[in-house]
Amino acid sequence: MIVKRYSGRTAEEALAMAKLELGDDAIILSSGKARDHWWKFWQSGYQVLVATDYPRRNGAASSKEAAPTVLAPAAGPVVEVAHPPLVEPPPLPEDPRLSQVLTLLEGMGERLERMEGLGDDQTLEAYQFFLDRGVSEGWSRKLAEAVRVRQQEEECPREQAIRETLMERLGPPAPIALAEPATVLFVGPTGSGKTTTIAKLAAYCHLERQKSVLLISTDTFRVAAVEQLKTYSEIIGVPFQVALRPQDIPHILKDRKWDVVLIDTAGHSLNHALYMSEIRTIQQLSQATDVQLVIPATMEAGLMCETAQVFADGLDAKICFTKIDEVRRPGALWTAALTLGWPLSYLTDGQNVPDDIQAAFPETLVNLMMGGER
After folding, report:
1. Which GO biological process categories is it annotated with (predicted)?
2. 271 and 130 fall within a common domain
3. DSSP three-state, residue 125
4. Fewer beta carbons within 10 angstroms: which end of the chain, N or C?
Protein backbone atom coordinates (compact mmCIF):
# COMPACT_ATOMS: atom_id res chain seq x y z
CA MET A 1 0.00 0.00 0.00
CA ILE A 2 1.17 3.53 -0.83
CA VAL A 3 0.38 6.30 1.66
CA LYS A 4 1.15 9.95 0.71
CA ARG A 5 0.31 13.39 1.98
CA TYR A 6 -0.68 16.29 -0.31
CA SER A 7 -0.92 19.96 0.66
CA GLY A 8 -2.64 22.90 -0.99
CA ARG A 9 -4.29 26.20 -0.35
CA THR A 10 -7.65 24.46 0.05
CA ALA A 11 -8.76 20.89 0.82
CA GLU A 12 -10.15 20.58 -2.73
CA GLU A 13 -6.80 21.56 -4.22
CA ALA A 14 -4.92 19.02 -2.06
CA LEU A 15 -7.43 16.29 -3.00
CA ALA A 16 -7.17 17.11 -6.70
CA MET A 17 -3.40 16.74 -6.54
CA ALA A 18 -3.80 13.32 -4.82
CA LYS A 19 -6.26 12.01 -7.41
CA LEU A 20 -4.11 13.30 -10.27
CA GLU A 21 -1.21 11.18 -9.06
CA LEU A 22 -2.87 8.14 -7.39
CA GLY A 23 -6.14 7.93 -9.29
CA ASP A 24 -9.79 7.91 -8.32
CA ASP A 25 -9.44 4.70 -6.25
CA ALA A 26 -7.30 6.43 -3.69
CA ILE A 27 -8.70 6.44 -0.17
CA ILE A 28 -8.59 9.52 2.08
CA LEU A 29 -7.24 8.54 5.46
CA SER A 30 -7.37 12.00 7.06
CA SER A 31 -7.58 15.73 6.22
CA GLY A 32 -7.02 19.04 8.01
CA LYS A 33 -4.86 22.13 8.22
CA ALA A 34 -1.38 21.76 6.85
CA ARG A 35 1.25 21.12 9.47
CA ASP A 36 4.29 20.79 7.21
CA HIS A 37 7.20 22.68 8.65
CA TRP A 38 7.93 24.11 5.22
CA TRP A 39 4.44 25.48 4.58
CA LYS A 40 4.22 29.22 3.95
CA PHE A 41 3.81 30.76 7.35
CA TRP A 42 1.87 33.73 5.99
CA GLN A 43 -0.83 31.58 4.30
CA SER A 44 -3.21 28.97 5.69
CA GLY A 45 -3.06 25.55 3.95
CA TYR A 46 -4.75 22.18 4.00
CA GLN A 47 -3.46 18.65 3.73
CA VAL A 48 -4.94 15.22 2.94
CA LEU A 49 -3.44 11.81 3.79
CA VAL A 50 -4.23 9.39 0.93
CA ALA A 51 -3.63 5.64 0.47
CA THR A 52 -3.88 3.31 -2.56
CA ASP A 53 -2.87 -0.22 -3.53
CA TYR A 54 -1.74 0.66 -7.04
CA PRO A 55 -0.50 4.03 -8.22
CA ARG A 56 -2.00 5.47 -11.36
CA ARG A 57 0.08 4.85 -14.49
CA ASN A 58 -0.21 6.73 -17.76
CA GLY A 59 -3.63 8.01 -16.86
CA ALA A 60 -5.32 4.55 -16.60
CA ALA A 61 -7.69 3.63 -13.73
CA SER A 62 -5.80 1.98 -10.86
CA SER A 63 -6.94 -1.70 -10.49
CA LYS A 64 -5.51 -5.16 -10.89
CA GLU A 65 -7.79 -5.76 -13.90
CA ALA A 66 -6.72 -2.61 -15.69
CA ALA A 67 -6.57 -3.11 -19.44
CA PRO A 68 -3.14 -3.01 -20.93
CA THR A 69 -4.35 -0.60 -23.57
CA VAL A 70 -2.67 2.75 -23.10
CA LEU A 71 -5.23 5.49 -23.11
CA ALA A 72 -4.57 9.10 -23.97
CA PRO A 73 -3.95 10.95 -20.75
CA ALA A 74 -7.00 12.78 -19.57
CA ALA A 75 -6.70 16.46 -18.95
CA GLY A 76 -6.37 16.97 -15.25
CA PRO A 77 -7.64 19.96 -13.35
CA VAL A 78 -5.65 23.17 -13.77
CA VAL A 79 -4.08 24.06 -10.48
CA GLU A 80 -2.93 27.64 -10.16
CA VAL A 81 -0.10 28.01 -7.70
CA ALA A 82 -0.21 31.43 -6.09
CA HIS A 83 3.05 33.25 -5.66
CA PRO A 84 3.54 34.88 -2.30
CA PRO A 85 3.07 38.67 -2.36
CA LEU A 86 6.21 40.78 -2.40
CA VAL A 87 6.85 42.16 1.04
CA GLU A 88 8.99 45.30 1.13
CA PRO A 89 11.58 45.25 3.89
CA PRO A 90 11.04 47.87 6.61
CA PRO A 91 13.03 51.09 6.11
CA LEU A 92 16.36 51.23 7.84
CA PRO A 93 16.62 53.70 10.70
CA GLU A 94 18.19 57.01 9.64
CA ASP A 95 21.80 57.33 10.66
CA PRO A 96 22.92 60.96 11.02
CA ARG A 97 26.49 59.93 10.29
CA LEU A 98 25.43 58.50 6.92
CA SER A 99 23.67 61.77 6.10
CA GLN A 100 26.82 63.70 6.97
CA VAL A 101 28.95 61.45 4.77
CA LEU A 102 26.54 61.89 1.84
CA THR A 103 26.56 65.67 2.28
CA LEU A 104 30.36 65.65 2.41
CA LEU A 105 30.55 63.58 -0.78
CA GLU A 106 28.13 65.89 -2.57
CA GLY A 107 30.21 68.88 -1.53
CA MET A 108 33.38 67.22 -2.77
CA GLY A 109 31.70 66.43 -6.06
CA GLU A 110 30.60 70.03 -6.53
CA ARG A 111 34.06 71.29 -5.63
CA LEU A 112 35.70 68.92 -8.13
CA GLU A 113 33.30 70.14 -10.82
CA ARG A 114 34.21 73.75 -10.06
CA MET A 115 37.91 72.94 -10.15
CA GLU A 116 37.63 71.23 -13.52
CA GLY A 117 39.61 73.09 -16.15
CA LEU A 118 41.65 75.16 -13.69
CA GLY A 119 44.87 73.61 -14.86
CA ASP A 120 48.03 73.40 -12.79
CA ASP A 121 48.57 73.41 -9.03
CA GLN A 122 49.37 77.13 -8.92
CA THR A 123 45.93 78.02 -10.26
CA LEU A 124 44.22 75.53 -7.95
CA GLU A 125 45.98 76.94 -4.88
CA ALA A 126 45.06 80.53 -5.75
CA TYR A 127 41.49 79.47 -6.57
CA GLN A 128 41.15 77.76 -3.19
CA PHE A 129 42.65 80.82 -1.45
CA PHE A 130 39.89 83.07 -2.78
CA LEU A 131 37.12 80.54 -2.20
CA ASP A 132 38.16 80.07 1.43
CA ARG A 133 37.80 83.82 1.99
CA GLY A 134 34.27 83.95 0.58
CA VAL A 135 34.93 85.24 -2.93
CA SER A 136 32.34 84.01 -5.42
CA GLU A 137 33.16 81.02 -7.60
CA GLY A 138 33.26 83.11 -10.78
CA TRP A 139 35.56 85.78 -9.42
CA SER A 140 37.74 83.13 -7.73
CA ARG A 141 38.36 81.60 -11.15
CA LYS A 142 39.19 84.94 -12.79
CA LEU A 143 41.49 86.06 -10.00
CA ALA A 144 43.22 82.66 -9.78
CA GLU A 145 43.97 82.71 -13.49
CA ALA A 146 45.35 86.27 -13.24
CA VAL A 147 47.55 85.20 -10.30
CA ARG A 148 48.88 82.24 -12.30
CA VAL A 149 49.79 84.46 -15.26
CA ARG A 150 51.53 86.96 -12.98
CA GLN A 151 53.50 84.23 -11.21
CA GLN A 152 54.73 82.85 -14.53
CA GLU A 153 55.58 86.21 -16.06
CA GLU A 154 57.22 87.78 -13.02
CA GLU A 155 58.44 84.60 -11.29
CA CYS A 156 57.21 85.91 -7.95
CA PRO A 157 55.79 84.14 -4.89
CA ARG A 158 52.06 83.42 -4.78
CA GLU A 159 51.33 85.92 -1.99
CA GLN A 160 53.00 88.74 -3.91
CA ALA A 161 51.12 87.77 -7.07
CA ILE A 162 47.81 87.79 -5.17
CA ARG A 163 48.51 91.21 -3.66
CA GLU A 164 49.46 92.77 -6.97
CA THR A 165 46.51 91.19 -8.76
CA LEU A 166 44.06 92.57 -6.20
CA MET A 167 45.70 95.99 -6.15
CA GLU A 168 45.26 96.47 -9.87
CA ARG A 169 41.57 95.51 -9.68
CA LEU A 170 40.70 98.52 -7.51
CA GLY A 171 41.11 102.14 -8.42
CA PRO A 172 42.20 104.96 -6.10
CA PRO A 173 39.75 106.07 -3.37
CA ALA A 174 37.06 108.61 -4.26
CA PRO A 175 36.40 110.67 -1.10
CA ILE A 176 34.44 113.90 -1.02
CA ALA A 177 36.17 116.64 -3.04
CA LEU A 178 36.61 119.56 -0.64
CA ALA A 179 38.34 121.92 -3.04
CA GLU A 180 34.92 123.35 -3.96
CA PRO A 181 31.58 123.59 -2.09
CA ALA A 182 30.08 120.12 -1.83
CA THR A 183 26.54 118.90 -1.19
CA VAL A 184 26.63 115.23 -0.28
CA LEU A 185 23.60 112.93 -0.17
CA PHE A 186 23.84 109.75 1.91
CA VAL A 187 21.58 106.82 0.97
CA GLY A 188 21.41 103.20 2.07
CA PRO A 189 19.31 100.57 3.81
CA THR A 190 18.14 100.71 7.42
CA GLY A 191 20.93 100.07 9.89
CA SER A 192 23.74 100.61 7.42
CA GLY A 193 25.35 103.34 9.54
CA LYS A 194 24.52 106.48 7.53
CA THR A 195 24.01 108.79 10.53
CA THR A 196 27.22 107.76 12.28
CA THR A 197 29.18 108.05 9.03
CA ILE A 198 27.84 111.58 8.49
CA ALA A 199 28.93 112.54 12.00
CA LYS A 200 32.44 111.21 11.38
CA LEU A 201 32.76 113.12 8.11
CA ALA A 202 31.32 116.29 9.65
CA ALA A 203 33.93 116.14 12.41
CA TYR A 204 36.70 115.54 9.89
CA CYS A 205 35.67 118.35 7.55
CA HIS A 206 35.05 120.90 10.31
CA LEU A 207 37.70 120.06 12.90
CA GLU A 208 40.56 118.87 10.70
CA ARG A 209 39.95 120.59 7.36
CA GLN A 210 38.47 123.79 8.89
CA LYS A 211 35.42 123.74 6.60
CA SER A 212 32.02 125.17 7.43
CA VAL A 213 29.54 122.33 7.61
CA LEU A 214 25.74 122.06 7.64
CA LEU A 215 23.90 118.88 8.61
CA ILE A 216 20.41 118.21 7.23
CA SER A 217 18.17 115.30 8.21
CA THR A 218 15.27 114.15 6.06
CA ASP A 219 14.77 111.03 8.22
CA THR A 220 11.52 111.99 9.95
CA PHE A 221 10.46 108.34 10.24
CA ARG A 222 12.68 107.76 13.29
CA VAL A 223 12.76 110.35 16.09
CA ALA A 224 15.99 108.81 17.35
CA ALA A 225 17.72 109.50 14.03
CA VAL A 226 16.98 113.24 14.23
CA GLU A 227 18.00 113.42 17.87
CA GLN A 228 21.20 111.48 17.23
CA LEU A 229 22.36 113.73 14.40
CA LYS A 230 21.35 116.85 16.38
CA THR A 231 23.46 115.67 19.32
CA TYR A 232 26.44 115.09 17.03
CA SER A 233 26.06 118.58 15.52
CA GLU A 234 26.12 120.17 19.00
CA ILE A 235 29.22 118.21 20.00
CA ILE A 236 31.07 119.02 16.76
CA GLY A 237 29.81 122.63 16.72
CA VAL A 238 28.05 122.76 13.35
CA PRO A 239 24.48 123.84 12.48
CA PHE A 240 21.69 121.32 12.03
CA GLN A 241 18.40 121.50 10.13
CA VAL A 242 15.44 119.13 9.66
CA ALA A 243 13.68 118.95 6.29
CA LEU A 244 10.18 117.67 6.96
CA ARG A 245 9.68 117.15 3.24
CA PRO A 246 12.02 117.22 0.23
CA GLN A 247 10.59 120.59 -0.90
CA ASP A 248 12.03 122.23 2.24
CA ILE A 249 15.61 121.60 1.13
CA PRO A 250 15.87 124.41 -1.48
CA HIS A 251 14.59 126.88 1.15
CA ILE A 252 17.24 125.73 3.64
CA LEU A 253 19.99 126.05 1.01
CA LYS A 254 18.82 129.34 -0.59
CA ASP A 255 21.55 131.34 1.13
CA ARG A 256 24.49 129.08 0.38
CA LYS A 257 27.16 129.87 2.97
CA TRP A 258 28.56 126.45 3.88
CA ASP A 259 31.50 124.68 2.35
CA VAL A 260 30.05 121.23 2.96
CA VAL A 261 26.39 120.18 3.27
CA LEU A 262 25.76 116.61 4.45
CA ILE A 263 22.20 115.27 3.98
CA ASP A 264 20.93 112.22 5.86
CA THR A 265 18.06 110.17 4.40
CA ALA A 266 15.81 107.52 5.88
CA GLY A 267 16.68 103.88 5.42
CA HIS A 268 14.00 101.71 3.86
CA SER A 269 13.38 98.24 2.50
CA LEU A 270 14.35 97.48 -1.08
CA ASN A 271 10.69 96.78 -1.82
CA HIS A 272 9.46 100.33 -1.09
CA ALA A 273 9.47 101.91 -4.52
CA LEU A 274 7.85 105.11 -3.19
CA TYR A 275 10.78 105.80 -0.86
CA MET A 276 13.26 105.07 -3.62
CA SER A 277 11.50 107.73 -5.70
CA GLU A 278 11.79 110.17 -2.80
CA ILE A 279 15.58 109.75 -2.84
CA ARG A 280 15.63 110.88 -6.48
CA THR A 281 13.54 113.90 -5.56
CA ILE A 282 15.89 114.86 -2.70
CA GLN A 283 18.90 114.51 -4.98
CA GLN A 284 17.35 116.81 -7.59
CA LEU A 285 16.09 119.47 -5.16
CA SER A 286 19.37 119.56 -3.22
CA GLN A 287 21.46 119.58 -6.40
CA ALA A 288 23.79 117.13 -4.69
CA THR A 289 27.29 117.04 -6.12
CA ASP A 290 28.11 113.71 -4.48
CA VAL A 291 26.02 110.62 -3.64
CA GLN A 292 27.40 108.25 -1.00
CA LEU A 293 25.84 104.77 -0.96
CA VAL A 294 26.40 103.37 2.55
CA ILE A 295 26.47 99.54 2.64
CA PRO A 296 27.35 97.28 5.59
CA ALA A 297 30.30 95.05 4.70
CA THR A 298 28.63 92.24 6.64
CA MET A 299 26.02 91.73 3.93
CA GLU A 300 26.04 88.80 1.50
CA ALA A 301 27.56 89.72 -1.86
CA GLY A 302 24.39 89.26 -3.88
CA LEU A 303 22.39 91.43 -1.49
CA MET A 304 25.08 94.12 -1.60
CA CYS A 305 24.80 94.30 -5.39
CA GLU A 306 21.00 94.33 -5.32
CA THR A 307 20.98 97.05 -2.66
CA ALA A 308 23.36 99.19 -4.69
CA GLN A 309 21.31 98.82 -7.87
CA VAL A 310 18.04 99.71 -6.13
CA PHE A 311 19.19 102.64 -3.96
CA ALA A 312 21.53 104.23 -6.50
CA ASP A 313 19.51 103.52 -9.65
CA GLY A 314 20.26 106.36 -12.06
CA LEU A 315 22.61 108.11 -9.61
CA ASP A 316 26.35 108.50 -9.99
CA ALA A 317 27.07 106.97 -6.60
CA LYS A 318 30.18 106.04 -4.69
CA ILE A 319 30.29 103.21 -2.16
CA CYS A 320 31.09 103.62 1.51
CA PHE A 321 31.54 100.25 3.22
CA THR A 322 30.73 100.29 6.93
CA LYS A 323 31.30 97.76 9.74
CA ILE A 324 34.60 96.55 8.28
CA ASP A 325 35.68 95.51 11.77
CA GLU A 326 32.80 92.96 11.91
CA VAL A 327 33.79 91.15 8.72
CA ARG A 328 35.02 87.56 9.16
CA ARG A 329 35.34 86.63 5.47
CA PRO A 330 36.03 89.65 3.23
CA GLY A 331 35.23 87.77 0.02
CA ALA A 332 31.64 89.06 -0.09
CA LEU A 333 32.84 92.67 0.06
CA TRP A 334 35.40 91.99 -2.70
CA THR A 335 32.84 90.17 -4.84
CA ALA A 336 30.41 93.10 -4.64
CA ALA A 337 33.13 95.69 -5.30
CA LEU A 338 34.45 93.82 -8.33
CA THR A 339 30.99 93.06 -9.70
CA LEU A 340 29.69 96.62 -9.40
CA GLY A 341 32.93 98.32 -10.43
CA TRP A 342 31.84 101.57 -8.74
CA PRO A 343 34.34 103.92 -7.08
CA LEU A 344 34.93 103.34 -3.37
CA SER A 345 34.99 106.37 -1.08
CA TYR A 346 35.31 105.41 2.59
CA LEU A 347 35.68 102.47 4.97
CA THR A 348 34.43 102.62 8.57
CA ASP A 349 35.50 100.19 11.27
CA GLY A 350 33.88 101.23 14.53
CA GLN A 351 31.56 103.67 16.33
CA ASN A 352 34.17 106.21 17.46
CA VAL A 353 33.62 109.71 16.05
CA PRO A 354 35.61 110.93 14.20
CA ASP A 355 38.35 108.32 14.35
CA ASP A 356 36.87 105.14 12.86
CA ILE A 357 36.73 106.20 9.21
CA GLN A 358 39.32 106.30 6.43
CA ALA A 359 39.52 106.68 2.70
CA ALA A 360 39.03 103.40 0.81
CA PHE A 361 42.64 102.80 -0.19
CA PRO A 362 43.16 99.52 -2.08
CA GLU A 363 45.96 98.56 0.33
CA THR A 364 43.48 98.44 3.21
CA LEU A 365 41.14 96.05 1.40
CA VAL A 366 44.05 93.91 0.20
CA ASN A 367 45.35 93.61 3.77
CA LEU A 368 41.84 92.64 4.85
CA MET A 369 41.83 89.89 2.23
CA MET A 370 45.28 88.66 3.21
CA GLY A 371 44.33 88.63 6.88
CA GLY A 372 46.73 91.36 7.88
CA GLU A 373 46.36 94.81 9.34
CA ARG A 374 43.45 96.89 8.09
Report:
1. bacterial-type flagellum organization; protein transport; SRP-dependent cotranslational protein targeting to membrane
2. no
3. helix
4. N
Distance CA 192, CA 195 (A): 9
CB 144 within 8 A of CB 118: yes
Residue 31 has pLDDT above 90, yes or no: no
Same-domain check for residues 229 and 204? yes
Q: Where in the sequence is the domain holding 124, given as residue range(s)?
A: 119-169
Q: Which of 32, 52, 72 is the last residue of a domain?
A: 52
Answer yes or no: is pLDDT of 199 > 90: yes
**Sequence-distant (≥ 6) Cβ neighbours of residue 59 within 8 angstroms:** 71, 72, 73, 74
DSSP conformational letter for 205: I
Using pLDDT thresholds of 50, 70 and 90, give the confidence band for residue 68. Answer: very low
What does each C-alpha distance from 270 to 198, 263, 339 come to in angstroms? 22, 20, 19
Buried (b) or exposed (e) across 78-113, using 16+ Cβ within 10 A?
eeeeeeeeeeeeeeeeeeeeeeeeeeeeeeeeeeee
Cis peptide bond upstream of 354, omega within 30: yes
Whether the per-residue pLDDT at 207 is higher than 90: the answer is yes
208 and 352 fall within a common domain: yes
Question: How many domains, in total, are found in the chain?
Answer: 3
Query: Is this prediction's pTM over 0.90?
Result: no
